[in-house]
Design a protein that fits this description.
The protein is an alpha+beta fold. The chain contains four helices and eight strands. The chain has two domains: 31 residues; 167 residues, no CATH class. The strands form two sheets. Strands 1, 2, 5, 6 and 7 form a five-stranded antiparallel sheet that branches. α2 crosses α4.
């Protein structure tokens, strides 16, 4: 009888253990499914399949040209041109007793000047048509007034017209300054009409803008080509 009772007790214990193991296994499977990390103790509710977002088509990494940067590039592209110039002037002799012995005197003054050439940034703009970047770029011009390089001349820069005659008509500092200022007007006109030099300044801006777009194309999946147009043609690209 005792033997039969022991057998029954053993069977009951075995069944209990089997049920407990089955329950633990089911719990573990549930945890693994809800967390997706099989072993984590934190259960996370799964998103119903009908509410999961659809995978969007990969458009790649796109960099777009920036108008402000293009304008900054144009500013960097400006040219500073230096000139070694000579101002020629004639100082007329005075009249009256106080100016006895004075005659007209021709003299030259050597000095240096600088001119800043480039495009007017306020007229620069861009438009993007698919993969085409249109840059509206005006012609280059003299951006700043042609000016004298400070301390580029002094009294030692004067070359007098030595005619072998006595002449008490001395050259003053004021005479030198007036001669240089008059000469600057002629130099400015010369620079403004130098089409080759102005063309170089504009081409410099074009090269730097193209370099900027090439850098964009290196990193962007969208590639651009550059077209340059005059600002007067703005809005005609799509026609």
């Amino acid at each position: 009888m005792k033997k039969l009772l022991c057998i029954l007790l053993s069977l009951l214990v075995g069944v209990s253990l089997l049920c407990a193991c089955s329950k633990d296994k089911k719990t573990a499977e549930t945890t693994s499914e809800t967390t997706g990390r099989g072993g984590s103790d934190v259960a996370v509710a799964k998103r119903p399949k009908d509410t999961e977002p659809e995978e969007s088509e990969d458009e790649g990494f796109v960099l777009e040209p920036d108008e402000v940067k293009v304008k900054n590039i144009c500013q960097l592209a400006t040219l500073e041109c230096y000139y070694n110039n000579v101002a020629k002037a004639t100082k007329s002799g005075g009249s009256g007793i106080a100016h006895l012995g004075e005659k007209d005197r021709v003299f030259w003054v050597e000095y240096s000047a600088v001119a800043t050439l480039g495009v007017d940034v306020s007229k620069v703009s861009i438009e993007v048509y698919d993969n085409t970047l249109v840059v509206y770029l005006p012609d280059a011009q003299v951006l700043e007034k042609v000016s004298v390089v400070p301390n580029s001349y002094d009294s030692n820069s004067i070359i007098k017209d030595l005619d072998g005659k006595i002449n008490s008509n001395d050259i003053t500092a004021s005479d030198i300054t007036n001669a240089v200022n008059d000469s600057l007007g002629e130099l400015t006109e010369e620079v403004e009409n130098d089409s080759a030099l102005l063309g170089t300044a504009k081409d410099r801006a074009k090269v730097l803008i193209k370099d900027y777009i090439e850098k964009i194309n290196e990193y962007s999946d969208k590639k651009y080509i550059v077209v340059f147009k005059d600002p007067s043609e703005k809005g005609t690209m799509g026609n």
